[in-house]
Specification:
The chain has 198 residues and is mainly beta. It is 6% helix and 50% strand. The chain has 2 helices and 14 strands; from the N terminus they run βββββββαβββββββα. The strands form 2 sheets. Strands 3, 4, 6, 7, 9, 10, 13 and 14 form an 8-stranded antiparallel beta sheet that branches. Strands 1, 2, 5, 8, 11 and 12 form a 6-stranded antiparallel beta sheet that branches. A hairpin with a 2-residue loop joins β3 and β4. The chain is globular, with a radius of gyration of 17 Å. The two termini are 24 Å apart.
Length: 198
């Protein structure tokens, strides 16, 4: 049985240069609703403190303890553009890079540094994990036309983090401001059912 733990939301603030801790006065309000086996997370970022510049917001983070080799876990990632490396990768692989230097600007989102560690992969809009057997997890953003969004994996030993991330590109969040964030869809159905529902 796969055990998945939901962690607290995180912010990468370009004002403080910190990651993982909320700037003073900033909170992410998150609620969830269920549709059969699926979950939809709705989030709002609220700034009750000083003006702050935000690089990334990570409203939904899951942590999974793998009970088998990362090689047996596959991540289907959606490319940044139609020219990007859409495909299925196991968690012992690293992100691919175009061999043609001047083509990289259409292959990559340069606001997101290329991850170079095995198991650290970046997907645009949504990503689907297969843990072997009948265990799957799809995480994807809904109605996100205002932001670039990513679903990332980070592997450390046998601990896997699945991160739903919104790219804010150092947007200034003024004091006493509230912004509704794109909803996040999570499903553990089989891939065809999950992607169809998504």
């Amino acid at each position: 049985m796969l055990r998945i733990k939901k962690l607290n939301p995180e912010i990468v603030s370009s004002t403080s240069g910190s990651s993982g801790t909320m700037p003073d006065g900033v909170v992410i309000e998150c609620s969830e609703r269920f549709q059969e086996e699926d979950t939809i997370f709705s989030s709002t970022i609220v700034n009750n403190g000083e003006d702050v510049s935000i690089a990334f917001i990570q409203p939904v983070i899951y942590e999974v303890e793998l009970d088998h080799s990362p090689r047996d876990v596959r991540f289907f990632l959606n490319g940044y553009t139609s020219f990007s490396g859409t495909g299925s990768f196991n968690l012992e692989e690293v992100e691919i890079e175009s061999y043609i230097h001047n083509q990289r600007q259409v292959h990559r989102n340069f606001h997101i540094p290329r991850q170079t560690e095995p198991g650290c992969l970046t997907s645009s809009l949504f990503g689907m994990l297969s843990f072997g057997g009948d265990s799957f997890l799809l995480v994807g953003f809904l109605k996100c036309s205002d932001y670039y969004t990513q679903v990332r994996t980070e592997l450390s030993g046998n601990t896997l983090r699945i991160i739903a991330q919104i790219q804010f590109e150092n947007l200034l969040l003024p004091a006493n401001t509230k912004i509704k964030l794109p909803d996040i869809f999570v499903s553990s159905k089989t891939p065809i059912k999950a992607v169809t529902q998504y």
